[in-house]
Design brief:
By secondary structure, this protein is α+β, with helices and mostly antiparallel strands. The chain folds into 2 domains: 102 residues, Immunoglobulin-like (Sandwich), CATH 2.60.40.1930; 100 residues. It contains 4 helices and 9 strands. The strands form 2 sheets. Strands 2-9-8-4-5 form a 5-stranded mixed β-sheet, with no helix packed on it. A 4-stranded antiparallel β-sheet has the order 1-3-7-6, with no helix packed on it. A hairpin with a 6-residue loop joins strand 6 and strand 7. Helix 2 packs antiparallel against helix 3 and helix 3 runs antiparallel to helix 4. The N and C termini lie far apart (126 Å).
Length: 257
């Protein structure tokens, strides 16, 4: 029995050793070029961008210059098209390579890709990655999205409370003042929401729709504000005339009939 158990154990051990995959750990590179540059995740649409790259010898850590090194940059749009390729110039500050990417390169919104590489006659190195082109170019984090959502909800609910006051108030001045203030808060919430949506819109028709809708809301707001101003002016004028009439009636010993 013991021999059988030992035999089964030996078989399982042999099977596991045969079936195991050999994991190859890459050997750290001791020679080559290390490329360092600001890794921005977002870029603004239709805006030029200045790219600065520093190249270092991996083994010594010393910076490389254009005396021995050439650097190149290639950019690709979301469709995978090759939209930019350039030999980078060496900066006048003698520290980095640079390329001024024109604004026409950032016309298509979405995820774009880049490849940067440098080489000497004996060494080479490259860096690759992606960045997102948006209308604002601002870095959007999860915390910012949560905060923006709460802010939009707060403005909208505050506007709804003023609308409830508008429906329940009997005084015309207070009633329409509630309407204007409530409409202002709802307009602000829709405007913030529009900005958040607009930043990642890629369809020109949707951009035109958001612009038109925002313009309509602002037009309604200013018309309502003008009407409220007229109502307040007429109310004030009526109060002044009534007060004057009351004083004249009191002067002659009674109310005028």
């Amino acid at each position: 029995m013991k021999k059988l158990i030992l035999l089964m154990f030996a078989f399982l051990l042999t099977f596991s050793l045969v079936g195991a995959k050999v994991v190859q750990v890459p050997t750290p590179t001791t020679d080559g070029i290390d490329i360092a540059f600001p890794k921005y995740e977002f870029a603004a649409a239709n805006t030029s961008f200045d790219l600065h790259v520093h190249a270092y010898n991996v083994s010594t850590g010393l910076p490389l210059t254009n005396d021995t090194t050439d650097c190149y940059v290639h950019l690709y749009n979301p469709a995978g098209s090759h939209i930019y390729q350039e030999v980078m110039n060496f900066s006048s500050n003698t520290y980095d390579f640079e390329a001024e990417v024109p604004s026409t390169i950032f016309e298509m919104l979405g995820t774009n890709a880049y490849i940067i590489w440098c080489n000497t006659s004996e060494l080479g190195g490259f860096a690759s990655g992606s960045y997102t082109v948006t209308n604002s170019g601002l870095t959007i984090t999860d915390a910012m999205i949560s905060l923006k959502t709460l802010f939009i909800a707060f403005l909208f609910l505050l506007g709804c409370l003023f609308f409830i006051g508008f429906l329940k108030s009997d005084t015309i001045q207070v009633k329409w003042s509630m309407f204007i203030v409530g409409f202002l808060f709802i307009l602000a919430s829709l405007n913030v929401l529009g900005i958040a949506i607009y930043d990642n819109l890629t369809a020109s028709s949707m951009i035109s729709f958001i612009d038109s809708l925002t313009a309509i809301f602002f037009t309604v707001f200013w018309i309502s504000t003008a009407l409220l101003a007229v109502i307040w002016f007429l109310t004030l004028l009526r109060a002044m005339l009534f007060n004057k009439t009351f004083k004249m009636a009191s002067k002659f010993g009674g109310l005028m009939k």
